[in-house]
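Annotated sample (chain length 186).
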Amino acid sequence: MAETSSLISGVAQRYAGSLFDLALEAKSVAEVEKNLGQFEALVNGSADLKRLIESPVFSSEDQVKAISAILTKAKIGGLVFNFLRLVAKNRRLFAVPSMIQAFRNIAAENRGEVTADVTSAHALTAAQQTELKATLKSVAGKDVTINVTVDPSILGGLIVKLGSRQIDTSLRTKLSSLKLALKEVG
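Output written by the structure step:
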């Protein structure tokens, strides 16, 4: 599994890097990032589209036709249209979600930003997000963009991943640590 994950990661990095270079040359990084986000929303909102990009059953030609029709209907054009058609033609649609994330990371790094993945037990208010960004900026020394995910199973607190660092203040982790400590005592 880890080998497959690193393979997808390598493919995603190469494709995202090439797309970023083209977008930078065309001075359309923001537009490409917006269009990729729009396509990602389409994928997340449609089980059929998700099946199309994940399933090896569909031929390359079928995937190219379907992606072209979807992108045309969604009014996604330019570099992203051509990029996704090429990805479909090369039978790499399964890696598109990783490519989109890799593109965002490359674009953020180019802007001098760093991205933090934050998991919380409930949705954060705008004030909480602003305070968290400011705190993370003081730690990272750069502007920080946060991706917030809500996971009620952590019960409370936050899990923050910033680069290779992870800070886990979730109640679930604290309870697990306490449970382990009690087992050692008793």
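Annotation: The first strand starts at residue 113 and ends at 120.
Annotation: The helical segments are 2-25, 29-45, 47-54, 60-73, 78-89, 96-110, 126-140, 171-185.
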